[in-house]
Amino acid sequence: MAQHVSPMRLGLIDKDGPEHTRLRTAALSASSGGALPAFRQHAGALCAKLVGALPPQRTADLVPTLIGPLVDETIGRFLGLPQQVDAVLRAHADTLVRPMTDEAIRTEITEARRALRRHVRALPQLRPPCAGAAGSRGEARPDEWTDVLLQMYVAGRRSTADFLATLVLGVLAQDRWAEGCRTPLARRRLCDEYLRFDGPIVRGVWRFARTDTVLAKTSIRAGDIVIVSLALANRDPTAFSRPTGLDPGRTPNRHLQFGHGAHRCTGVPLVYGLADALLTTLSRQYPDASTTGDDPACRSGRNSIFRGPARVLAALGPRQPV
Q1: Which of 45, 75, 259, 280 has the smallest number of Cβ neighbours within 10 A?
Q2: Is there a contact between 33 and 266 (Cβ–Cβ < 8 Å)?
Q3: Pure H helices in 125-245
Q4: Which of 135 and 293 is assigned the larger pLDDT?
Q5: Taking the domains of the chain in order of start, what are their residue ranges?
């Protein structure tokens, strides 16, 4: 096998088989994935509050006023984190998703892990789920659980915010966009199409070849690192009709933005829940909102390993009564 040590080596990404199943079971048990109605209610109420604070008949940047606060105030709740832990992780999260040297990454992760580990050990509500005999199914040791929480928080916070910004920027550029957001099914299909067409994650995490093989006429030896381009896979003409075009009603839509199989993203309910709340609330209160032309910052994004617009300037128009 190729020599590789992940900076967050005890988390979910570097695990397969029984070890991965054990940690994933604990992660799903701890998150709000098992209490979706309550989470959706919370997300909807927060979104209504944030949208209600927007200035009618004005142009606003929806990233700092709506999308950022929506994600920041729900990611911790989704993962079951107390407010003081959420604040600790938020201080490190933006740095950890910027391109850095290996040594800088390891230093920042070490500091974040050390701070989080103190809370995991001190707070009963942060103890790993399913605690029992060592190695029991579903149990996560404190150091492992620290890395699981760190991975889920850092990756989930930034990628979700970037996707929601892309979604809103694209949707508000369409004529009569609010009409396409009237039903849950329409909103879900719209969400999936933007995940496929312009998702925040361009490539998957590293994988290792178990045996010598040939992939797309390329020879790969056992132990070689293989990285899948999710952006290209999501525009594969053998999997999607008109793959380079945006089709809000596309079905079926088997995009790979959330991954596939055992490593499918554990934050799927977070993304769908926030996207639905955002589209529902904006379409009801500001159905005439539109983006304001070709802003270079909207296209260039930020210095991040994820992809998304740095700002979403929207002419809001009049607010409708709710």
Answers
A1: 45
A2: yes
A3: 142-171, 184-198, 230-233
A4: 293
A5: 17-238+271-315
CA separation, residue 45 to residues 122, 230, 314 (Å): 31, 33, 22
Question: CA angle at residue 233 from 28 to 218, to 5 degrees?
Answer: 115
Render the burial of 24-36: b for 16+ CB within 10 Å, e for the rest.
Answer: bbbbeebbbbeee
CA distance 37 to 43: 10
Beta carbons within 10 angstroms of residue 99's beta carbon: 9
Closest CA to 71 of 55, 50, 41, 92: 50
3-class secondary-structure state, position 199: coil
Rounded Cα gap, residues 188 and 249, in angstroms: 9
Q: How far apart are CA 195 and CA 267, in angstroms?
A: 14
Kindly report, residue by residue over 179-232, the tens digit of the pLDDT: 999 999 999 999 999 999 999 988 877 788 889 999 888 999 999 988 888 989
Helix, strand, coil distribution of the chain in percent, nearest 5: 50, 5, 40
**Which pLDDT tens digit goes with each residue over 16-72?**
788 888 888 877 777 765 578 888 899 999 999 999 999 999 999 999 999 999 999
Q: Which fold has domain 17-238+271-315?
A: Cytochrome p450 (1.10.630)
Roughly how many angstroms between the first and final C-alpha of the chain, as a whole number? 59
Verify cis geometry, omega within 30 degrees of 0, for the bond prior to 243: no
The H or E element that residue 61 is part of is strand 59-61
Decide if 248 contacts 189 (C-beta within 8 A).
Answer: yes
Structure token digits, residue 41? 């209610």
Q: Give me 69's structure tokens.
A: 């606060």
**Residue at 210: amino acid letter:** R
CA distances from 174 to 243, 247, 315 (A): 19, 12, 13
